[in-house]
């Protein structure tokens, strides 16, 4: 076993960083609702100032997560201490986004992060906020005082506009399912009516201690929010927020990091500082007690295997089984999972007595890359090593593991079970038809047992523009595709998992179900109580963005876990989300 409790580590050599840096994780703030954060600093322990990074909200937080990590690393390389953190009820911090009084909790989170930075011994503290994080940073500056500089990075035109735009995006593009009266649902986030009203009316109060300076970065073609910047009462420097569309307004898999804008921010924050001062001290709080399902669980950060993969272990007070649940990245999302689902499930399942670990595979989220590996590559062949390292590190018996994943994580979970039998697999919307990244420079990795590289036959079918024709040809196309790829036919490798006594639950929408032959063969599993279950959920969003779908999937997964691990006295169904809705077709029930 090679699981290492290492809250501080070298960030590793990076050709784009001027000086070596170190990074450490910690919980801070209130002991009853701890916040989670990262501290990046120069490797020599001396800093010219501190910078607190205030993230955006909802889907924009997801898209900006990796950019904030890179910004923190570059700030540390430029001689500053950088704090990035999760607001109360978001990311890895305690609480839920549906809790009351969110705006006050988010502002208190910024204040706690500022106090953390000041407690390190840095001579000055600055704030950086993107989108809604910019408005929250500005309000926090007015109430905190003694802030040196504020960077308003692509601020929203107004909080009302943000809520209107994001809720419209959710309704029109993602889900038309009705929500409870007064609830405002954004892509990946739910706000109650008082929180939405409070956020809509949020304004900068009177500033008693203006910051020394403000940097306002605006997307080209948009009106600069000079009123927001001017309300802070400081000298304003304006500049372009380049690359925001490619960072925030695209699917996560297509995201591009705005390195030029980040370089501008680093240069602006570092320029007026005279140079290094005395050593900074980073407090350590390596574990936290988190409230969950009426009880509490313990969370701590770990580094896994020789690559030092980053993970968070959620331990129950009273373990009821020896099995450990591993939760994998979905695409290039971080370890929190789709709309934070892994965080919610890890705490819920730990309250039931099951140990859970959510971790970032190499090159994704907060994990380093392996030698020679490029960062942010989805379905990289190195992910096979990542899952195996996690299995070896977490259990004396690597077979006593359950693996959970969505999309690319669902695919990797199934591959892991075929590589070496494990206790259970839960794959949500796994994608089996894709072009492996290694094909760009060589052959396909032989460890890929179920991947079907996208070929001309199925590709031609997908290009058919007339939907009725596609529906008529669908069964025939997929039946021929399965015959042409007999060795990777789902019926065959699912039979192998069944023979190895691996409990398999696959939850998928109609489109994803075609990969498993459900449409071609009508069924794959043949007997009641079979170890392999495929549930086709009508209208299931691929990334589970609608809250009711996350609650539905969480309930199904929890029920399956209870059955597989023989857990008695299960908690009330769906106690972590909204009422379960939506028709489904269960195959192999």
Give a description of the structure.
With 589 residues, this protein is α/β, with parallel strands linked by helices. It folds into 2 domains: 245 residues, Rossmann fold; 246 residues, Rossmann fold (3-Layer(aba) Sandwich). Helix content is 33%, strand content 20%. The chain contains 17 helices and 22 strands. The strands form 3 sheets. Strands 1, 13, 14, 15, 16, 17, 18, 19, 20, 21 and 22 form an 11-stranded mixed β-sheet that branches. A 9-stranded mixed β-sheet has the order 2-3-4-6-5-7-8-11-12, sandwiched between helices. Strand 7, helix 3 and strand 8 form a beta-alpha-beta unit. The radius of gyration is 24 Å and the shape is globular. The N terminus and C terminus are likely disordered.
The parts where pLDDT drops under 50 for at least 5 residues are 1-6, 456-467, 570-589
Number of helices: 17
What structural class results from the helix and strand content?
A: alpha/beta
Mean pLDDT: 86
CATH fold-level label of the largest domain: Rossmann fold
Query: How large a portion of the residues is in β-strands, by DSSP E?
Result: 15-25%
Quaternary organization: single chain
In CATH, what is the homologous superfamily of the largest domain?
Alpha/Beta hydrolase fold, catalytic domain
C-alpha Rg (nearest Å): 24 Å
Domain tally: 2
Which bin fits the share of residues in helices?
A: 25-40%
Number of strands: 22
Ends apart, CA distance between termini: 37 Å
Shape: globular
Largest sheet: 11 strands, mixed
Query: What is the CATH architecture term of the largest domain?
Result: 3-Layer(aba) Sandwich
Kindly provide the name of the CATH class of the largest domain.
Answer: Alpha Beta
């Amino acid at each position: 076993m090679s699981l290492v409790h290492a809250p501080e580590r070298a960030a590793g050599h990076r050709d784009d960083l001027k000086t070596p840096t170190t990074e450490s994780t910690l919980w801070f703030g209130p002991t009853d609702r701890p916040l989670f954060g990262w501290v990046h600093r120069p490797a020599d322990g001396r800093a010219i100032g501190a910078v607190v990074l205030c993230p955006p909200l909802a889907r924009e937080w997801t898209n900006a997560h990796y950019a904030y990590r890179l910004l923190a690393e570059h700030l540390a390389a430029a001689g500053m201490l950088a704090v990035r953190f999760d607001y109360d009820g978001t990311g890895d911090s305690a609480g839920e986004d549906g809790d009351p009084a969110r705006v006050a909790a988010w502002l208190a989170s910024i204040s706690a992060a500022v106090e953390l930075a000041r407690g390190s011994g840095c001579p000055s503290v600055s704030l950086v906020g993107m989108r809604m994080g910019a408005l929250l940073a500005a309000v926090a500056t007015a109430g905190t005082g003694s802030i040196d500089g504020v960077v308003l990075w692509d601020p929203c035109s107004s909080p009302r506009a943000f809520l209107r735009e994001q809720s419209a995006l959710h309704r029109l593009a993602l889900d038309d399912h009705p929500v409870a009266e007064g609830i405002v649902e954004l892509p990946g986030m739910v706000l109650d009516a008082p929180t939405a009203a409070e956020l809509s009316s949020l304004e900068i109060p009177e500033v008693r201690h203006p910051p020394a300076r403000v940097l306002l970065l605006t997307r080209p073609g948009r009106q600069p929010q000079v009123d927001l910047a001017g309300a802070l009462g400081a000298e304003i420097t304006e500049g372009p927020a380049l690359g925001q569309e490619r960072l925030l307004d695209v699917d996560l898999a297509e995201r591009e990091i705005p390195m030029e804008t980040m370089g501008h921010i680093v240069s602006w924050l570092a320029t007026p500082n005279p140079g290094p001062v005395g050593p900074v001290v980073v407090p350590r709080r390596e574990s936290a007690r988190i409230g969950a399902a009426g009880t509490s669980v313990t969370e701590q950060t770990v580094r896994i295997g020789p690559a030092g993969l980053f993970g968070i272990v959620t331990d129950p007070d009273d373990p009821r089984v020896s099995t450990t649940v591993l939760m994998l990245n979905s695409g290039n999302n971080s370890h929190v999972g789709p709309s934070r689902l892994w965080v919610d499930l890890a705490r819920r399942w730990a309250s039931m007595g099951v140990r859970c670990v959510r971790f970032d595979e190499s090159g994704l989220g907060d994990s380093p890359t392996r030698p020679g590996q490029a960062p942010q590559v989805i379905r990289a062949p190195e992910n096979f090593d990542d899952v195996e390292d996690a299995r070896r590190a977490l259990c004396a018996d690597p077979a006593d593991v359950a693996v959970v994943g969505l999309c690319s994580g669902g695919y990797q979970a199934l591959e892991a079970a075929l590589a070496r039998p494990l206790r259970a697999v839960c794959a949500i919307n796994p994608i089996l038809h894709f072009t492996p990244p290694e094909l760009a420079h060589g052959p396909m990795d032989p460890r890929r047992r179920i991947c079907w590289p996208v070929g001309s036959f199925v590709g031609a079918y997908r290009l058919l523009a007339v939907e009725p024709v596609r529906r008529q040809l669908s069964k025939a196309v997929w039946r021929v595709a399965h015959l042409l790829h007999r060795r990777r036919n789902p019926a065959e490798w699912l039979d192998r998992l069944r023979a190895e006594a691996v409990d398999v639950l696959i939850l998928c929408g109609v489109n994803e179900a075609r990969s498993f032959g459900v449409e071609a063969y009508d069924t794959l599993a043949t007997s009641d109580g079979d170890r392999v279950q495929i549930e086709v959920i009508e209208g299931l969003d691929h990334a589970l963005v609608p809250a009711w779908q996350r609650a539905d999937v969480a309930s199904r997964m929890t029920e399956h876990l209870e059955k597989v691990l023989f857990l008695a006295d299960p908690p009330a169904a769906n106690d972590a989300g909204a009422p379960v809705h939506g028709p489904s077709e269960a195959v192999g029930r």
